[in-house]
């Protein structure tokens, strides 16, 4: 059986790794890999390439690759609602539903829109609502991850590898334990 605090901690670490790059990114990536190694060796192996990238690139390069990937390519925007619905009324409804969920569980989101992948991962890491979290993962996060991963053409792209690591972790957690948290 998987350890609940590790899963919550891993979701938080992934939210940091997939946010706009800040100092300490390499340490977070290493902690994430070490935690993953205990519960999902396949996912941990995939994270090595991202760690190598963060280790060899300077901060400006990391920021440039992050921005060119997630901010300048609409097909890769890290917004779950956008990935599932496009930019239309359905996404607006999705955003409103996310706000309702956050309010219901007394979660105060950060500066991102409620459907941002990192915001959803932070919510999962901070709430004690396993059914709600699993539904968000199964019906939102995993399908959105699949679309973003497919949109990044370069298989060696560091953020594609990071997204694949998250996908592997969430998928393995689901199949091994029946629920992430």
TrEMBL record:
GO molecular function list: metallochaperone activity; unfolded protein binding
BP-aspect Gene Ontology terms: chaperone-mediated protein complex assembly; nitrate assimilation
Keyword Kinase appears in the UniProt entry: no
A Pfam family that the UniProt record links to this protein: Nitrate_red_del
Coiled-coil region: none
Keywords: Nitrate assimilation
UniProt entry tagged with the keyword Ribosomal protein: no
SUPFAM superfamilies per the UniProt record, alphabetical: TorD-like (SSF89155)
InterPro entries: DMSO/NO3_reduct_chaperone (IPR020945), NO3_reductase_chaperone_NarJ (IPR003765), TorD-like_sf (IPR036411)
The protein's name in its UniProt record: Respiratory nitrate reductase chaperone NarJ
Species of provenance: Desulfuromusa kysingii
Highest classification ranks of the organism: Bacteria, Pseudomonadati, Thermodesulfobacteriota, Desulfuromonadia, Desulfuromonadales
